[in-house]
Amino acid sequence: MRVLLIEDNADFASLLTEGLTKRSISSEHAATLRDADLFLASNAYDAIILDLGLPDGDGVDWLNALPQNRPPVLILSARGALTERVLGLDSGADDYLVKPAEVDEIAARLRALLRRPGSRDPVILNAGALTYDTVTREVKYRDQPIPFGRKETEFLELLMRRAGKVAPRESIESVLYGLDEAVTPNALEALASRVRRRLAEAGADNILHTVRGVGYFIRGDAA
User: Fold this and answer.
1) Which helix (H) or strand (E) holds 7?
2) pLDDT > 70? residue 147
3) Both ends of the chain: CA-CA distance in Å?
4) Coil, strand or helix: which one is 219?
5) What are the φ and ψ backbone dihedral angles of 184, each rounded to 5 degrees?
6) H helices present in the chain, as ranges
């Protein structure tokens, strides 16, 4: 899962980002609503965590202006009054959690948002005989589990979400590697090679493909 965290408290944002990462949820941090708009314009997210009191505006007003095809939004705010919670939910938030909150509950709320009927993405991703459970993060080929590391799993999930379509390498790198994370020129190639090897060891040796100079894709009809 990849989320956008909109929070002006840098220390809190750092702690929450670290905690979510340990729970297999990657996040990018926007300290202002303007930064959030820039992130959303150039990246895809599974969910948004939204504080309400931002330096350049109120989160509720910003939420009201979001398009209908936005990711689900979890408001995480110190505003705990009933009227504030009702206002946030009536303004389009999918869930509301009052600070302080434990990271485990925040992570659980995010997972629950993606499991709701009508949510943007399915819980189980399929590419023929290859499946990926977005909740347990388990990859299987013909019902047999395949062990993957965290970054390998994120790479595979990204491709399975658009099975049959080429994912440009620039988009892949923007999702897998944070803005401040150093990335070597051949990091993505090495990652793809590891994933391809693990798939081949499981018998799925013709699923992951490279389009030279463009990106990668997973066959949607993997036998």
Assistant:
1) none
2) yes
3) 26
4) coil
5) -75, 155
6) 10-22, 33-42, 59-64, 82-90, 103-115, 150-160, 169-176, 187-201
Residue range 129-140, pLDDT digits in tens? 999 987 778 999
b/e burial code for range 177-187 (CB count within 10 A of at least 16 → b): beeeeeeeeee
pLDDT (average), residues 146-166: 88
| Mean of all residue pLDDT scores within the chain | 86
Residue at token pair 């997973």: 218
Contact 16, 7 (CB under 8 A): yes
Contact at 8 Å (CB) between 210 and 216? yes
- Pairing assessment for the beta strands 95-98 and 73-77 based on DSSP bridges: parallel
As a whole-number percent, the residues of the chain with pLDDT over 70 amount to: 93
The single-letter DSSP state of residue 72 is P
Alpha-carbon distance of 32 to 8, in angstroms, equals: 6
Burial class (CB in 10 A: 0-12, 13-18, 19+), 98: middle
CA 138 to CA 131: how far, in whole Å? 8
Q: Are 148 and 139 in contact (CB under 8 A)?
A: yes
- The predicted model gives 205-214 an average pLDDT of 90
pLDDT band of residue 117 (cuts 50, 70, 90) is low
Q: Nearest 5°: CA angle at 101, between 136 and 20?
A: 40
- Please state the pTM of the whole predicted model: 0.57
On the question of a cis peptide bond just before residue 185, with omega within 30 degrees of 0, the verdict is no
Banded pLDDT at 162 (limits 50, 70, 90): confident
Q: List beta partners, residue 217.
A: 209
